[in-house]
Amino acid sequence: MIGLGFRRDFSKELIEGDLLKADFIEFAPENWMEVGGQWGRIVKEATERYPVHAHGLSLSIGSPEELDYDFLGRIKTFLKEYGIDVYSEHLSFAKAANAHIYDLLPVPFREDAVQHVAKRIRQVQDFLERKIAIENVSYYTPVAAEMDEATFIRSVVEEADCNLLLDVNNVYVNAFNHNYDAKEFISQLPLERVVYLHMAGHEQVEPDLIIDTHGQPIIDPVYDLFDWCIQRIKPVPVLLERDFNYEDLEQMQDELTKLKNISKKHWEVTYAEA
After folding, report:
1. In this predicted model, what pLDDT tens digit does every residue of 4-20 receive, in sequence order?
2. How far apart are CA 216 and CA 228, in angstroms?
3. Confidence bin at 102 (pLDDT 50/70/90)
4. Average pLDDT of 98-122?
5. Which residues contact 136 (CB under 8 A, 6 or more apart)?
6. pTM of the model
7. Confidence of residue 97 (pLDDT cuts 50, 70, 90)
8. How far apart are CA 2 and CA 133, in angstroms?
9. What is the DSSP letter of 40?
């Protein structure tokens, strides 16, 4: 299944039109929880037409303070209300001392951070009564690293006994910016725990710097990495992320189609053999 993040700018086309052909949609719960009025009706229409996954923005799993259980309670209600099977969040932090940074900052690649984050993930899973998927994030400088990124991610996921959301574009961006091999990195992850994939575009702003914008078309090397990656994991939902630059919906549909064709090339064979 190839899905698309639900955005107000093209919500009408997703619900009423026939240009965007997504198999499912993804909500950021923070943007849609407890919404009423016209947009509440639109959300209901969307969930009646599409299966829904949820990808959170502000759980801040790497923060030092206690979890916000009031917020988690609202998340739990939202997931139940719309029958959402997959709930994912970022392996990052976005707040400290109740100050919200509104950005996804990297957690230090350290053993004490592994234990801290894994404990919090277990607490979230116990409260929500489900496993969650944690996403590898893009970052622009490591912080007090004592291990490599792949070891850190694998250690957190295994210690927490959670699932993994593999963002292929984030791997490409980090590999370019930090000068490592993207395929070798992916090979070191617990691929048997991948339950969801994200794909997106980025922008190269300097000869040695890529910014993860989610606002540009996917480039060929990221498609190539996706093609290589999905041969090594079981079939899972794949999401196209686009956070702005929505003017060319036909171009976005071309991306959905290309992702579906690449997926079929490998995963339909997998299903047939099974």
Report:
1. 999 999 999 999 998 99
2. 22
3. low
4. 87
5. 91, 149, 153, 164, 165, 166, 167, 170, 171, 174, 189
6. 0.93
7. low
8. 18
9. H
Per-position DSSP letters for 183-218, written without gaps between them: HHHHHTS-GGGEEEEEEE--EEEETTEEE--S-SPP
* Overall average pLDDT of the 202-221 stretch: 87
Would you say the C-alpha torsion 81, 11, 87, 85 has a positive or negative sign? positive
Gap between the Cα atoms of 93 and 104, Å rounded: 6
SS3 56: coil
Judged by DSSP in three states, 99 sits in strand
CA distances (Å), origin 56, targets 76, 205, 219: 12, 27, 25
pLDDT on residue 99: 65
Q: Is 60 left (phi over 0), alpha (psi -120 to 50) or beta?
A: left
Place of tokens 């196209």: 240
Give the number of other CB atoms < 10 A from CB of residue 127.
14
Give the domains, in start order, of the chain with CATH numbers.
2-273 (3.20.20.150)
In three-state secondary structure terms, 100 is: strand
* Structure token pair of residue 217: 């078309």
